[in-house]
Amino acid sequence: MSTDSVVLVTGGNRGIGRAIAERFVRDGHRVAVTARSGEGPEGTLTVQADVTDGASLDAAIARIEAELGPVTTVVANAGITRDTLLMRMSDDDFDAVIDTNLGGAFRTVKRAIKSMIKARRGRIILISSVSGLFGVAGQANYSASKAGLVGFARAVTRELGGRGITANVVAPGFIESDMTAELDEATQASYKKQIPAGRYGSAEEVAGVVAWLASDDAAYISGAVIPVDGGLGMGH
Ligand code: NDP
């Protein structure tokens, strides 16, 4: 990816999204992050947007394009969990997770591709999860939303692959973040036992793979699912 790229990262105010935004800034790109609260890292343009609200995304992307230029790389990262066993999962728990994780990626990508189609160049990177491929008890809503991103990326690849646009999925395993810090110690220890690498990953390790997918070196990779999980989901 040349350094005249304009990168948009949703949910770039904290966690993995923030590390991704920091990495693109460090690599010399113009970077915008959307946030519902707080600010993106130094060197980024922060715009308020809720990915469940198409109008707020329209306004955010219009502002990014006016201030930084047409978006050339979009990273759909914003996501939530509402874990509970299926028997206890409310319709609202299911809908909110699908609407944020899958609907949010749809709305973000749909708006961001307009300029990519014109430029005949673009990178779409969707942050999924090992949970979407492996299936995790207590995450029927989350696993479904993250698996949905795979079908979405592959359909987009077939629609836009001929226009110099790639769409790929990154599937992190357990990454040190606010999301994993919420797990109690016993759960964390039992998860670590199942990870061949024997440790959680870092947000920076996810960011490195995202940066590579956005680079010219990955121009012929599309519709792929790249795990960043220390071997946890092997074979899925
Ligand atoms: P965090 O909970 O630390 O951050 C989530 C981010 O998403 C925040 O920036 C949050 O914004 C944003 N967000 C949530 N809902 C919305 C919304 N409706 N509109 C706009 N932004 C929203 O999560 P992580 O950094 O851990 O996770 C980032 C992504 O990586 C998620 O998609 C997650 O599913 C995925 N992932 C995480 C793993 C992990 O181990 N941590 C493992 C596998 C995948 P705000 O601060 O305003 O709430």
UniProtKB/TrEMBL annotation:
Keywords assigned: Oxidoreductase
Cross-referenced Pfam families: adh_short_C2
Molecular function, one GO term: oxidoreductase activity
Domain Ketoreductase, first and last residues per copy: 5-178
Coiled coil found in the keyword field: no
SMART domains recorded: PKS_KR
Segments forming a coiled coil: none
Highest rank taxon of the organism: Bacteria
Family: Belongs to the short-chain dehydrogenases/reductases (SDR) family.
Listed name of the protein: Beta-ketoacyl-ACP reductase
